[in-house]
Amino acid sequence: MKKILLLCLLALPCGHLLLASHLRCGYIIAERSNCTSRTVKIKIVVFTNTASDVKFGEDGILYFGDGTSIVVPRVENTPRPDLGANIGMASYTVNHLYGSLDSYLISYVEPNRNGGVLNMEDSFWTTFYTETRINLAIGTCSSPVFLSPPVFFFSASRV
């Protein structure tokens, strides 16, 4: 019995591979042109599966948080082999003038986020969603900025 259990444990892979239809993860950065302006530069950054024919945009909607929105145009991938095989990056930037100095929840929604995610049921049909908030009333100059890229692969043998 112990030999069978040991053989089963040895047969398990050391790392887990997650597959994506096209969007792996992403975030939004909102930055004012200056700390007193109502004009905000909004940048959506996504990490993609370059093996997929589906691209970022076309079906995605960027909500500005003030009742207005736009459809994000199709954006081509930039390969990022430094992050792993078939990983790319895409971004879209737009300037938006807000009507008042208030707090705004900026969000992006796109259908069919990921396929093959192990801890999600029907992950391919799960909508991709990301958001950030900027408060113009208190003089916030930008939303948080990520200083390092996301981790896509992890080996359990290194724990």
Task: Please outline the helices and strands.
Elements: H1 2-11, E1 15-16, E2 23-32, E3 39-49, E4 61-63, E5 69-71, E6 78-79, E7 87-97, E8 103-110, E9 128-135, E10 154-155
Keywords:
single chain; 159 residues; mainly beta; Immunoglobulin-like; four-stranded antiparallel β-sheet; elongated; disordered N terminus
Describe the structure.
With 159 residues, this protein is mainly beta. It has a single domain (18-141), classed as Immunoglobulins (Immunoglobulin-like, Sandwich), CATH 2.60.40.10. The chain is built from one helix and ten strands; from the N terminus they run H-E-E-E-E-E-E-E-E-E-E. It has one helix at 2-11, and strands at 15-16, 23-32, 39-49, 61-63, 69-71, 78-79, 87-97, 103-110, 128-135, 154-155. The strands form three sheets. Strands 2-3-7-6 form a four-stranded antiparallel sheet, with no helix packed on it. A hairpin with a 7-residue loop joins strand 6 (78-79) and strand 7 (87-97). Mean pLDDT is 78; it is low at 1-20.
Derived structural class: mainly beta
CATH class: Mainly Beta
Helix content: under 10%
Radius of gyration: 20 Å
Rounded average pLDDT: 78
- Please count the helical segments: 1
Q: How many separate domains make up the residues?
A: 1
Strand portion: 35-45%
List SSEs in N-to-C order: HEEEEEEEEEE
List low-confidence stretches.
Answer: 1-20
Count all strands and give the number. Answer: 10
Principal-axes geometry comes out as elongated
CATH architecture: Sandwich
Give the full name of the CATH homologous superfamily. Answer: Immunoglobulins
What is the fold-level CATH name, i.e. the topology?
A: Immunoglobulin-like
Largest sheet: 4 strands, antiparallel
Strand ordering within the main sheet: 2-3-7-6
In whole angstroms, how far apart are the ends? 27 Å
